[in-house]
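Listing S7. Sequence submitted for prediction.
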Amino acid sequence: MEYRYFGNTGLKISCITFGAQTFGWNIDEKEAHELLDYYEASGGNYIDIADSYNQGDSERIVGTWFKKRGNRERFIIGTKVFFSTGDSVNDTGLSRKHIFHSMSESLDRLGTDYIDLYQM
């Protein structure tokens, strides 16, 4: 795997990233974990997800993989906020309320206490 510096963060990020948008939609947890295992074995270290992907299932599935493998520290997580995550008028957008709520929910689903890249 080839790596590049991630901006001026000092982190090295794999040139091939892993998008997990379909986890919980047409890829179940077992298959998702197998794909993530393959990606890790190939040297990949960046996972792209979002709070809105499949009502949070994408983040939850990645979180269960981290918990089972004990490998959170080996990865850079990039997740997003903006799109609707519920039925309320305030469950979307970039309001302080939505950002803080979505961040908290993402951290819980991922089973981590930090996110490396939070995209808006």
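Caption to Listing S7: primary sequence and predicted structure tokens for the chain studied. The chain is about 35% helix and 15% strand. The chain has a mean pLDDT of 90.
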